[in-house]
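Example S7 (structure tokens).
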């Protein structure tokens, strides 16, 4: 019983009460049938039989109620009250949970009609009573189907994919990030994707190798480097990026747990969210893939980084590839995967010598699952989960309509865990140093750090690691900026004056229509026109469409063309109706695509119309107040071709 903790008590309570409820329901049904046929049970008077039937029924109801309450209360399982009552509306395993809801509703109907028996008549009551017997076979089907996906070996597999509660900021101001001690990359201004060179890094503290698990099932923590300060993800000064010996000296070997799902509660306690853009709770994905494993899950580290303004994944693979590979191994163990894939943008793959690094790891016996490197095309949508799954399966890197979701049926039709490579690096650190160490940075509800690509007003671009809750003004210079693009090309513009009061926090950004995304922050210089910059990017996003749905095939080109006309890029004065057309077409595109590409593009354009309202009015009169016509935001040169999808 040493494996039972407070974090698993609700899981066991829910399953135990479910089993007891099913046993009691079986007894109630059997007694009901026998009494109906024989009028009594051998050796018992009729009143005693009826009393036994009634008492067992009431006891079964009590256990069913406790079963439902504990299932909803279990924070590892995303079951809402509506999903427990309304059949087949659950986002997770809708069939099996829906059957449970049907059984519950039938029992509820029996209880209500029994209470109203004198008012509805005996005939109606008996009809409902007999119909309620169907709750037993439905409950049996529910019990066979759902736990079958929710249990593995000796430990629970907690299902569910659901967004957590909204975060709140702590009152304390986090320390200013050390930009000089982080991954710096000098990018040529206005060059789109550029060759980058690493800068120096801050100091770290060496620590002894990590021991194995203790007798009580706890995992001793390795002493954290740099006292838990920054940088966390990247190597310190004096250590070459990508060096295996330096990595092992700083972090030690991979801290395997030796059992499927054992790491998941630690990830949940750490509060780690995805760093690829959606900020989804990582433990939810791990649980879902582990629970959905029906014949060999697959884990994929996503470094496609199709966003032209982002360079963080490239920086991580160049400077700390072994931390990513450690995280990939730990994720594979956590979900019981026998196959691991590293999905890397083609140009980054050519410059990182990943296969050579994996050969070094093989020589040390570090990896338990072989890792396959799959080059990704340099397309904006190549990193979308379903597009990734399609390419790794041998198809083209184009998104597909969902459901099924990738965690249900992804690469080769198998349950697939897709995590951004930065997320995997954080996972490797949490496994070594624990949830408490991870939460020492950031805010209570947005713990940890993230890598940010920072575009300054002078055109320079750097990658820096910052704690959640860091003021945006500490990351990009706002004194000579008119606006800040937050979250990249599916993010939103925010006026510079407003951004100076904001922090790196989804809690503060989401009410403004923005979010941290993949950590892109771009401060727009005062001599550039935000409307023109948005129009340039919108054209690129329209060209990057996979062309699989109407909103992308027809809607985005129309929206981009209208915006280009308004910005004066079409060579003519804009039509008086162009703004109203833009607003109307954006509404028609939103929420109707095969993926989120139309939604993200519309969010980006709408924020520009709002933030650059003065520029919109000027352009409607045929004027532009920009002092420079040089492009600022990086956009790859030339349209992509269909051949680039594979």
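Recovered sequence:
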């Amino acid at each position: 019983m040493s494996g039972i903790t407070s974090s698993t008590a609700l899981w066991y309570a829910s399953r135990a009460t479910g089993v007891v409820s099913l046993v009691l329901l079986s007894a109630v049904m059997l007694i009901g049938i026998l009494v109906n046929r024989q009028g009594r049970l051998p050796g018992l008077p009729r009143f005693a039989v009826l009393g036994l039937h009634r008492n067992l029924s009431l006891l079964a109801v009590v256990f069913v109620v406790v079963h439902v309450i504990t299932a909803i209360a279990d924070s590892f399982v995303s079951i809402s009250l509506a999903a427990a009552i309304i059949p087949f509306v659950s986002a997770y395993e809708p069939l099996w949970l829906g059957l449970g809801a049907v059984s519950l509703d039938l029992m509820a109907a029996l209880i209500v009609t029994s209470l109203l028996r004198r008012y509805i008549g005996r005939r109606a009551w008996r009809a409902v009573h007999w119909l309620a017997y169907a709750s037993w076979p439905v409950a049996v089907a529910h019990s066979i189907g759902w736990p079958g996906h929710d249990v593995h070996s000796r430990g629970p597999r907690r299902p569910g994919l659901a967004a957590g509660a909204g975060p709140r900021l702590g009152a304390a101001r986090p320390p200013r990030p050390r930009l000089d001690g982080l991954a710096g990359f000098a990018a040529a201004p206005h060059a789109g994707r550029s060759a980058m060179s690493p800068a120096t890094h801050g100091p770290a503290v060496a620590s002894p190798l990590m021991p194995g698990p203790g007798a009580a099932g706890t995992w001793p923590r390795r002493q954290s480097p740099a006292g838990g300060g920054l940088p966390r993800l990247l190597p310190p000064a004096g250590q070459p990026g990508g060096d295996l010996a330096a990595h092992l000296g700083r972090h030690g070997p991979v801290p395997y747990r030796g059992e499927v799902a054992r790491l998941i509660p630690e990830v949940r306690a750490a509060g780690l969210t995805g760093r690829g853009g959606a900020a989804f709770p990582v433990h939810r994905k791990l649980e879902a893939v582990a629970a959905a494993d029906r014949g060999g899950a697959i884990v994929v580290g996503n470094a496609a980084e199709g966003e032209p303004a982002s360079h963080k994944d490239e920086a991580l693979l160049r400077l700390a590839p072994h931390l990513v590979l450690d995280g990939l191994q730990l994720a594979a163990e956590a979900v019981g995967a026998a196959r691991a894939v590293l999905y890397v943008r083609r140009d980054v793959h050519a410059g990182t010598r990943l296969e050579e690094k994996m050969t070094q790891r093989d020589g040390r016996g570090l990896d338990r699952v072989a890792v396959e490197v799959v080059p990704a095309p340099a397309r904006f949508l190549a990193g979308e989960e379903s597009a990734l799954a399609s390419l790794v399966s041998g198809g083209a890197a184009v998104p597909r309509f969902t459901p099924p979701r990738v965690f249900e049926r992804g690469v080769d039709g198998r349950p697939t865990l897709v995590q951004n490579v930065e997320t995997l690096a954080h996972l490797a650190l949490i496994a070594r140093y624990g949830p408490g160490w991870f939460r020492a940075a950031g805010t209570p509800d947005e713990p940890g750090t993230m890598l940010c690509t920072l575009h300054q007003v002078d055109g320079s671009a750097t990658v820096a690691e910052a704690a959640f809750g860091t003021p945006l003004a500490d990351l990009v210079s706002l004194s000579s900026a008119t606006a800040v693009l937050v979250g990249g090309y599916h993010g939103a513009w925010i006026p510079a004056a407003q951004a100076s009061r904001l922090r790196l926090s989804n809690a503060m950004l989401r009410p403004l229509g923005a979010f941290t995304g993949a950590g892109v922050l771009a401060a727009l210089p005062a001599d550039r026109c935000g409307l023109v910059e948005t129009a340039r990017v919108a054209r690129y996003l329209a060209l990057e469409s996979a062309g699989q749905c109407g909103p992308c095939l027809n809607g985005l080109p129309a929206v981009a063309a209208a915006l280009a006309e308004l910005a004066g890029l079409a060579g003519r004065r804009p039509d008086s109706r162009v703004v109203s057309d833009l607003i109307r077409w954006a509404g028609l595109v939103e929420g109707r695509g095969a993926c989120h590409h139309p939604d993200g593009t519309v969010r980006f354009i709408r924020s520009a119309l709002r933030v650059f309202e003065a520029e919109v009015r000027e352009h409607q009169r045929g004027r532009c107040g920009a002092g420079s016509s040089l492009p600022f935001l990086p956009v790859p040169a030339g349209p992509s071709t269909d051949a680039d999808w594979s």
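Notes on this example. Residues 449-525 form a domain with the Ubiquitin-like (UB roll) fold (CATH 3.10.20.600).
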